[in-house]
């Protein structure tokens, strides 16, 4: 899911800063190598927008550890969302599958925040149309809980227990000019709670 | 909120760029083994064709099916329309069936506008060509092809056609493709020049946002894209030019003329091509002719339009003018 930049209050406090983010990504990279026994067949697919940047960084770290180039791509899940009909049509982001495809590979989905799990469900549907991976794993920078589907992450940068009144916002250098994970209070946006499900807010961001 | 695409003039620059960018993403779907998206699942789209068309209807049908919509094809021939049913009755029948979108082609200019604004039907209306008036998705697919060839597939994302010089040659008078293209290309920042015999230019063409010339040879060296229009024999109910041979010599595109175009310039044709009349086989079969690419781009562009109009609970395109004229 995307971070909810638009709704973060001014009083947002950082829970992870730049060096922390670099450190947890290094740890996740090592965990991937360990679990995949060398990351031979790993393909990283980032979920736009910030998941793509995280996937790129993970790929660089994996290349550093294994000495091999790890295929990396992006997977836009907009067309597979289950709330597509509840909101105005939104711009599509980029889907880029590595040239060798994902058949028989270990696909690691990469996103910034794991929340309701609906984004990941959509991503699994999207993968289904693209090929048949050997296995699919999930890496997220922050897991903030409140799952609405039976989905869990394989690699978590930081578990961050939150209340639904809080917002988690990830800022990355590539997009926002700084690296940080911010925890803030949700502002009243006038959107009814049922529709304004927090993780479904900022997806329209485009490229 | 209105959710129709009636005219190329309805689109703002940002809308048009959004549609072209979305079409690029749709094009990626076409490269996959499974060329289908679940986006319009459960939505019903009717292709309401009062005029014969193969290319446009198949293109829309492919686009609708790739987005998982339920598709109903309606050809006026052999239907109740040939028994005398009016457009209003047809519309109300479709409304009663709970149709979500109507793609309409009609011989009468303005029929889609009437359908969209009369209150007969709630569905989204997409104009697939009305008389000599408009063919907005055709102009979008032309712009899509031009942007790909002249700006680049990836480099073009988010960009318009500012500064590109486009020449449209042939029967402007009867051409909805020309009308739509002049408006859309102008919106996208291109400079359009129309080239035609004076008899095939409509009254008031001086007020269009484009230049007009009678001399093809003079315009060719300054063109980034040359769009050849079909001479519509079925609409040639008067003597618009002396002979086909003369038309061909003055306004036809052959190898010698093509050589006068800049190296990067492309030749476009909305099809169907009449080889030997407006375009020679040599040009039609050359690498610079994009007629086949335009067909492929048509499916992607129409997918983009249908997704942006029907994908959410509100369309993503704003339709500057329809709101005013409603």
From TrEMBL, chain A:
GO biological-process terms attached to the record: regulation of DNA-templated transcription
Transferase keyword on record: yes
The entry's keywords: Glycosyltransferase, Transcription, Transcription regulation, Transferase
Motif PRPP-binding: positions: 107-119
Highest taxon in the source lineage: Bacteria
GO function terms (MF aspect): uracil phosphoribosyltransferase activity
Positions with biased composition (Basic and acidic residues): 196-207
Disordered: annotated span: 181-207
Catalytically driven reaction(s): UMP + diphosphate = 5-phospho-alpha-D-ribose 1-diphosphate + uracil
Protein task: Regulates the transcription of the pyrimidine nucleotide (pyr) operon in response to exogenous pyrimidines.
Protein name, as recorded: Bifunctional protein PyrR
Source organism of this protein record: Streptomyces spongiicola
Automatic annotation (TrEMBL), chain B:
Protein name per its UniProtKB record: Aspartate carbamoyltransferase
Taxon lineage: Bacteria, Bacillati, Actinomycetota, Actinomycetes, Kitasatosporales
Subunit structure: Heterododecamer (2C3:3R2) of six catalytic PyrB chains organized as two trimers (C3), and six regulatory PyrI chains organized as three dimers (R2).
Assigned keywords, A-Z: Pyrimidine biosynthesis, Transferase
Organism: Streptomyces spongiicola
Enzyme category, top tier: transferase
Pathway named in the protein's UniProt entry: Pyrimidine metabolism; UMP biosynthesis via de novo pathway; (S)-dihydroorotate from bicarbonate: step 2/3
Ranges where the Aspartate/ornithine carbamoyltransferase Asp/Orn-binding domain occurs: 163-309
Function: Catalyzes the condensation of carbamoyl phosphate and aspartate to form carbamoyl aspartate and inorganic phosphate, the committed step in the de novo pyrimidine nucleotide biosynthesis pathway.
Family recorded in the similarity comment: Belongs to the aspartate/ornithine carbamoyltransferase superfamily. ATCase family.
EC numbers, comma separated: 2.1.3.2
Reaction catalysis annotation: carbamoyl phosphate + L-aspartate = N-carbamoyl-L-aspartate + phosphate + H(+)
Domain named Aspartate/ornithine carbamoyltransferase carbamoyl-P binding: residues: 3-147
